Structure to design on (318 residues):
């Protein structure tokens, strides 16, 4: 998701397929830029979208429109609340970066869903409130409300996705997402679609995206590794086979290394929290946040400090 739709051209193509025409008309999606989200709190980063884009208006207006692109592979009834929390952080950031701004940038949340079944809940925040629609209408001027755009891949067919007006890489990524959970032999299905789209995958710039997709299929797909690999190689455009497979292998190796490192980090964080709670009792939210953000080296240093510290504050003292 991040590797493909984190690129503005693919994100713009997805937005053109799902946005109402009245929303798309005043915006220049060709000039859309991805925004950095590394500043997001650790707590939010794990539960909210991390693809954020900024699109100017066609008339060169004073404000840009932000798009919050979230993908969800599980059903979560709290999605409107999660999106609201994320939007609030974006506006807080704007106040810091643009202290003279008189108004907030509009934010349009978009949810790309490929869970176990169709999205069963409304897309409007107001429907999260208790009470019926009559009461909501009466209270409307005083209630927070927004509607997120839903692209539910569960209710789409491969044929519908293949017919979308977007590049072959984007369509291939959507089909991979849609079928990852429900197709018994994902690699075979992916290879068949890859052959269908092969004529649109001949340009050299598609190699990184294809490598990401192949790496994903090799990682989550079923079947013996070598036959699956051979199947994918045969389906790739001839001129890209070597580059795509070598890049996919490199990405898989990096992923395994990153996974082991992440596992060690989480284990150290849990150990440190248990140790501090046993010594000092309750650990504050601020301390927990520092632990969640700390590097492996810092965690080791704090564990050593905790053995001799008199107070919890002493553990984090530089």
């Amino acid at each position: 998701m991040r590797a493909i739709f984190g690129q503005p051209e693919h994100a713009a193509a997805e937005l053109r397929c799902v946005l109402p025409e009245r929303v798309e008309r005043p915006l220049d999606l060709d000039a859309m830029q991805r925004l950095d989200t590394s500043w997001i709190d650790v707590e939010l980063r794990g539960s909210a979208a991390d693809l954020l884009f900024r699109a100017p208006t066609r008339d060169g207006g004073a404000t840009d429109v932000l798009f919050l692109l979230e993908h969800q592979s599980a059903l979560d009834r709290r999605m409107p609340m999660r999106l609201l929390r994320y939007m609030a952080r974006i506006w807080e950031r704007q106040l810091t970066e643009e202290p003279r701004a008189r108004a907030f940038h509009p934010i349009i949340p978009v949810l790309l869903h490929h869970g176990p079944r169709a999205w069963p809940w409304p897309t409007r925040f107001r429907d999260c409130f208790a009470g019926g629609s009559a009461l909501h209408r009466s209270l409307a001027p005083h209630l927070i409300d927004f509607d997120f755009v839903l692209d539910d891949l569960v209710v789409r067919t491969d044929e519908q996705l293949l017919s979308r007006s977007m590049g072959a890489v984007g369509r291939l990524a959507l089909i991979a997402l849609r079928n990852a959970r429900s197709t018994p032999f994902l690699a075979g299905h992916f290879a068949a679609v890859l052959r269908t789209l092969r004529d649109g995958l001949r340009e050299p710039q598609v190699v990184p995206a294809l490598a990401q997709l192949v790496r994903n299929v090799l990682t989550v797909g079923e079947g013996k590794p070598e036959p699956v690999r051979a199947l994918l190689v045969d389906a790739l455009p001839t001129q890209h086979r070597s580059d795509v497979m070598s890049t996919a292998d490199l990405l898989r190796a990096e992923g395994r290394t990153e996974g082991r490192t992440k596992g060690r980090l989480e284990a150290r964080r849990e150990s440190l929290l248990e140790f501090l709670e046993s010594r000092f009792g309750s650990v504050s939210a601020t301390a927990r946040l520092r632990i969640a953000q700390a590097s492996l080296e810092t965690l080791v240093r704090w564990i050593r400090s905790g053995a001799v510290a008199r107070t919890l504050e002493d553990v984090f003292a530089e």
